[in-house]
Design a protein that fits this description.
The protein has 96 residues and is mostly helical. 67% of the residues lie in helices and 0% in strands. It contains three helices and no strands. The protein is elongated and about 60 Å long.
Length: 96
Amino acid sequence: MQENQITLKLSKIQSKAIIALAKADAKSIKLIIASLLNQGIYWEWCEHDYNNEPANGWPDEWKEINEELENELKLLKNQYHKKIDSEINQELETYG
């Protein structure tokens, strides 16, 4: 593990919630976590709310980190849509 990485352990109910949402939305756990993290940050410090930044301000490197988070989420969503498209095409070939 690199110096700038941490390992988080979800509680049992958090794990259960993530798995249930992934199954319910037919998405990977990684995509669900990336979506929740990305949207959670936005909603916690929404620019349109009174609480629009962390208590000590945005870290200097935040713009770069946020861009990387958004890129990761886009990549995971693209992978998900390619998988769904492939499954649909396969189904169409089978039953079409």
